[in-house]
Amino acid sequence: MSPNASPRILVTGATGRLGGRGIRYMNLPAAEYKAALLTAGLPAEVAALLSDTYAAIAKDALFDDSKALSRLIGRPTISMAASVSKALQATNEMTQAGNPGIRRFLTDAGSR
């Protein structure tokens, strides 16, 4: 398996650690994931696209160690944990600065 396997697990773990909260990751088979998306109200076509995409990702469909992305974006890539850390830091800074949009988003997200 690739060193970048299970990106959802990496993101979930990094987000939980960096955000100071436990986040539970559930690895669902594609059919169960699709059913959950349908239950959440996504159109059937979108649910099928997402469940098929994540099933392919779980089989390393996106793995590439050729550094193609680094060449494309013109800089080195960063780890999932570093990316989540930067996003959380930016969110904290916006919240502390009184950004009403981010505060509303976080409030709405917390009530789901």
Please name the CATH topology: UDP-galactose 4-epimerase, domain 1
Number of strands: 0
Q: On the 0-100 scale, what is the average pLDDT? A: 79
Distance between the termini: 34 Å
| Residue fraction in strands | under 5%
Main beta sheet: strand number and arrangement? none
CATH superfamily: UDP-galactose 4-epimerase, domain 1
Identify low-pLDDT runs.
1-5
Number of contiguous helices: 6
User: Could you say which structural class the secondary elements and strand pairing correspond to?
Assistant: mainly alpha
Topology order in helix (H) and strand (E) letters: HHHHHH
The helical percent reads: 55-70%
CATH architectural category: Alpha-Beta Complex
Cα-atom radius of gyration: 17 Å
**Quick one: overall form?**
globular
- The total tally of domains equals 1
Please give the CATH class: Alpha Beta
Please tell me about this protein's structure.
With 112 residues, the protein is mainly α. The chain has one domain: UDP-galactose 4-epimerase, domain 1, CATH 3.90.25. It contains six helices and no strands. The radius of gyration is 17 Å and the shape is globular. It starts with 6 loop residues before the first helix and ends with a helix. 4% of the residues are buried. The model is unreliable at 1-5 (pLDDT under 50).
